[in-house]
Each structure stands twice: as C-alpha cells, then as structure tokens.
UniProtKB/TrEMBL annotation:
Secretion signal, residue range per the UniProt entry: 1-18
Organism of origin: Acrobeloides nanus
Name of the protein this chain belongs to: C-type lectin
Domain spans labelled C-type lectin: 301-401
InterPro entries for this protein: C-type_lectin-like, C-type_lectin-like/link_sf, CTDL_fold, VWF_A, vWFA_dom_sf
Amino acid sequence: MFKLLVVAISYLVANSNGLNENEDSIIYDPTAPKPCSNNATSAYVDILLVIDTSSNMGNANLRKIGTTLSLILPKFTIGQQSDITQGYRNTRVGVITYDSNVKIIANYTDINSVLDVSKILNGLTASNDHATNIGGALFTALGIVNPCSETDDPNCIQLPYSRPTAIILFAAKAAVDDLGDNLGGIQDTLVFLANNDATLITVNFNNADPILTGVLDIITYNKFAGVSMYNFVSTRSSLTKDFEWAILQANCYCEQANNLFTSVKVQFDSTTNRYSRYRECLWVGPRTVDQNPPVSTVEICDYLPIQSVPANILSADENKFFEAMILDSHIDGGGYIPSYFGLHKNKQSQWVYYGYNLTEFPMSNYTNWAPGYPKPNDKCAILDSIDSKHENLVWKSIGCDPSAQNFNYIWSICQFEGCDSTTLDCCYACAVENQGGFEGKVKKMKRRSERKIKNSKGRFNRLINKN
Ligand SMILES: *[C@@H]1O[C@H](CO)[C@@H](O)[C@H](O)[C@H]1NC(C)=O
Ligand SMILES: *[C@@H]1O[C@H](CO)[C@@H](O)[C@H](O)[C@H]1NC(C)=O
Ligand SMILES: *[C@@H]1O[C@H](CO)[C@@H](O)[C@H](O)[C@H]1NC(C)=O
Ligand SMILES: *[C@@H]1O[C@H](CO)[C@@H](O)[C@H](O)[C@H]1NC(C)=O
C-alpha cells in the first residue's frame, strides 16, 4: 500500500477546454483511440453525491456544492426509467452525507428532478462533528450501486445489464487511519465499486491537508495508467466544466458484470492535456488449452461474449497500459505468460492490425520489437518480457497458431467497443435480450464461454487471492 501512495500523483490540468459537443460526427479511425461522447442529454449514468457534512466542511462550502451542482445537473435527464435495454436515457441521483456517521439522505427513488436535488442540498447543514468516515460513506454508496453486494439473500435480484455510476465525493477531511488501518477496507470497496461500473470523482475542500489529499489520490487512482484521475480541488474556476466532463467519462465504460478482466482504455489526451478514457474496452486473459484450442489469434478473441478482435498497440502509451494490465492479471506471482496481440502479417507480408470489423490497417510508426525480432518466418506477435523481473514487455514475433506453441494457457489481449452516453456497444444484455431494437455488438449463444471465463483465472478469483 505504501508503494501505491508514493506513485499516486496528483493530477493537474493545465487548461480546461470546453467540451466538444460535435465529437459524434468524428469519422471512425481505427488508428486512433475512439473518443467518448460528451452528450449529456443522452447520458444514462447514475450520480451519487457523497458529501462530507462534518464541521471541517462548513456551511459556506455546502452552499457552494449546491450552486455548482445546480449548474451541471440540468444538462442531464433526471428520472427513474433505468432500463437501458429499453432505450431510456435517465440519470438517477442519490445523496449520502457523512461525518463520523453515514446517512442516506435520498436514494434514487426519492429524487425526480433537479429541484428535488436543490431542495435536499439547500437543507444540508454542517454538524459539530470533527471526525469523518470516508470508508463507511463509500461502503454505503456501494450498497446503493449494487443492492445485492451487501446481502447473502439469494433472492436479491441483480439487473441483467449494468448501469454506470458517477460517485462524487466532496471531502474536507480524512482520518489519519484512512492511510493506515482503514486503507485496506477502502481499497476493497473501491474494487467492488469498479466491478459494478462506478467511477470515483473527488473534490478536495482542503488541499493543504496531506492526509486528505493522499486519500483522494488513492481513491481516484487508475493503476493501469499510473495516475489519479477525476480528482479536483474545490477552488478550481473550471469546476462545473470539469464535473460535466468527468460524469460523462463515468458514462464511458466497459461492462464488468461478467467479471472479465476488462478495463476501459485510458490515454493521455494531448489536446486537453489530461488523461482521459476512450470508448474502447481492453481485455487480458487466458484461454485454457482444452479440447478445442484456438488455432488463430482471431479465434482467441472470438471466445469473448462481446464481438472482439486481437488488440492494437499503436503507441508507447498503449504498450504501457497493456503491460500494466497483463502484469496485474497474473495472480500466481510467477509464471509469467506472454500474450498475443493483433499485430500480424497480411497476405502481402506487411505487418498490419485489425479494425473492429476485421478489416486490416498498417501498423503505426510505433514498434517495440525485442532485439533480434521480428524473425522472417513468423507472422504473428506476442508481448513478452526479456528481463527477469518481467517489467518491460516487448514484442516478439511468433507463429500464428496458438495451439502449436506449447503454452499451458493461451493468453491474449483483445479489444471491443465500449459504451458511452450515445452507445450501448459494451452492453451484453442490450443485445442478448434484444429489447428496444438495439443492434449491440454482442454475439448470441455465448453464455457457456462466459461462465467458463468466470471460472477460469479471471477477475473474481484474482480479487479473492490478492492481499
Ligand atoms: C445528444 O443526444 C440527444 C438525445 O439523444 C440528441 O437529440 C442530440 O442530437 C445529441 N446531440 C449531439 C450533438 O449529438
Ligand atoms: C429509499 O428507498 C426505500 C424503498 O426502496 C424507501 O422505503 C426509503 O424511504 C427510501 N429513502 C431513504 C432515505 O432511505
Ligand atoms: C470496416 O471498417 C472500415 C473502417 O475501419 C470501413 O471503411 C468499412 O466499411 C467497414 N466494413 C464493414 C463491412 O463494416
Ligand atoms: C510515420 O513516419 C513517417 C516518416 O517519419 C511520417 O511521414 C508519417 O506521417 C508517420 N505516420 C504516422 C501514422 O505517424
């Protein structure tokens, strides 16, 4: 945990550009990451406001929170019709407050309009309590995000689709123990929140407090990108724009409901000077060599329930992101296994990648071949390590038939299209149930593979085995 603290870098934004509302007209370019939609009108992200009402916050700050939110929430469609498979585009809002006690002030059913939110926020007053319970507040939020997470009741009904949630934490103080004894519990809650498609956005009301700042850095840390994201200081002049962007980023996600080892793509965006999500889902995982081992890289990714292709690595940034995902996915501590990716030679012997529809396009200028590679007769590529610590993954050429390579497990990295406020491409239930006329990018009849992945060394086992 200490290591995490050291690497958790505060995320600064040099300038905040307005949102580009026209981004949906951008033509799909397989050689660039797909931007997330900035269309708040069509958003279907739930918003949970988690507000520190201890004496550290004070009433003036509580009024400021109300004012800021009253500028942002009208852009979203507040409502209760939550079934995204039916095409509804509603944002549900809930409010939790905490000092040393955590209270649900309003759950989703209590709020039907921006006015409802304003009334609730205007009614908040700071308490005399100087202590705060951030861990308890996040755990309570988890109970709202996934009501089945806190109960063993087998009758608790889990929705067949998942809704993304933006949890906005307004914090003025953290307990010293939040960086000590409480940290493990907070991190466990964060993992479950992430698995339930919730994104943490934090607002720091006392930037001079190193404990609070350290805790918020951890809460917003993206371990694959190696940075804290959506981590704002309350005095920022661009806070309303930042909020709108961050909430829409929360609506740009990859469904984790199947416990696949999946992450939405995060890259540095040099036009806005900040790390950003992109509407692409990356999957790293093993396929066991069973009776029907895959005989091509396309077939490995075809195994996923959502239409997927072997992944592209178009920049050093992307290579680094995959490296972090692959290294993190290996639970057994050793036994590093190389992973196939999408680079391959086409019929004209050029190195190319796959677009989402399996059309091919030339590799970018970025290459990361290990010394002595590529070898002339190899037509596919793996990410592998050449150092004993397995820290820096480089490319090696290899044969394209995974079943011919003597691997115990065939690992690969695959990619599929993500969801954002204007698309449901990552939503399994949207296509499987085939309700609401959504095309979806999901293949049918894959329930069996889905279960198999869940039982293999996927995300769920990983969670249990770690720490
Ligand atoms: C945003 O979404 C709304 C509702 O789906 C739609 O009517 C509008 O055209 C979209 N705006 C843009 C810029 O795409
Ligand atoms: C939350 O929802 C339940 C019904 O699901 C309701 O009984 C309760 O009053 C709601 N409000 C709060 C603040 O818990
Ligand atoms: C596949 O995608 C490319 C762009 O990457 C597009 O030009 C082409 O029309 C698509 N083909 C099909 C069959 O959808
Ligand atoms: C690759 O490099 C060449 C030569 O430096 C340059 O002309 C070309 O635009 C680059 N292509 C890409 C996709 O960056």
